[in-house]
Amino acid sequence: MKPVAEFTKGILKENPVFVMALGLCPALAVSTSVENAIGMGAAATFVVLCSNLIISLIKNFIPDKIRIPCYILVIATFVTVVDMTMNAYLPPLHKSLGIFIPLIVVNCLILCRAEAFASKNGVGLSILDALGMGLGFTLALISIATFREILGSGTFLNMRILPQSYKPMIMAILPPGAFFTIGLLMGLINLLKKKD
Fold first, then answer.
1. Spatial distance between the Cα atoms of 150 and 152, rounded to a whole number of angstroms
2. Cα gap 166→175, rounded to integer Å
3. What pTM does this model have?
4. What is the dihedral of CA 68, 74, 77, 78, to 10 degrees?
């Protein structure tokens, strides 16, 4: 049961954005469209997965005094891979996400999983934790972006779903709209958790 619990905890019970309030900067900044949310979620999932894997393998060889710089070096390596790959194969998405791709290095979610989980557990559980947390982060971004894109543009994945006569709520794609959407979704998650 423990492997299943490790994987599923990041989706709802310990969702990085809605429960632990980690990774809020990219959640606020790039969630103006579902396409951006999927791209950022996939990038962060790749980085947390690879860094958890490597850190769980080398944790016994890293002295305590330099563990955080070592973790950041591992994370930065995978962020560089994501940045260069996205720039080569998905230039419009890379341009749209901009500075938030390199800033994955300092995303609290990634460092938190390295320090709190991968450095204390084996490879298998670290991979499951990373996949669950990455999926939870991605789903949170997509949830936020869905509301913001539909209300703010009348589109979903850049396809018009509301009638042409719809007057977009510009507030939804501005920063206050992001705060409002995250607040509402956090409240909904807390309400669902209380019912359990």
1. 6
2. 21
3. 0.93
4. -110
Q: For residue 126, which of 56, 184, 64 has the smallest C-alpha distance? A: 56
Domain count, the chain: 1
Q: Dihedral angle at the C-alpha atoms of 152, 88, 106, 67, nearest 10 degrees?
A: 160
Residue 24 within any structural domain of the chain: yes
Domain of 100, in residue numbers: 2-188
Residue 195 in domain: no
Q: Roughly how many angstroms between the first and final C-alpha of the chain, as a whole number? A: 19
Asked whether residue 68 is assigned to any structural domain, the reply reads yes
| β-bridge partners, 160 | 155
At 63 the three-state DSSP class reads coil
Is the residue at 173 inside a domain? yes
Give phi and psi for 155, each to the nearest 5: -125, 165
Position 119 confidence tier, pLDDT thresholds 50, 70, 90: very high
Contact in structure between 17 and 182 (CB atoms under 8 Å)? yes
Nearest-angstrom CA–CA distance, 57 and 118? 9
DSSP secondary structure code for residue 160 in this structure:
E
pLDDT tens by residue, 2-17: 888 889 999 888 999 9
CA angle, residues 138, 143, 148, in degrees to nearest 5: 125
Beta bridge partners of 156: 159
**CB proximity list for 62: less than 8 A, separation 6 or greater:** 70
Q: Are the beta carbons of 10 and 134 closer than 8 angstroms?
A: yes
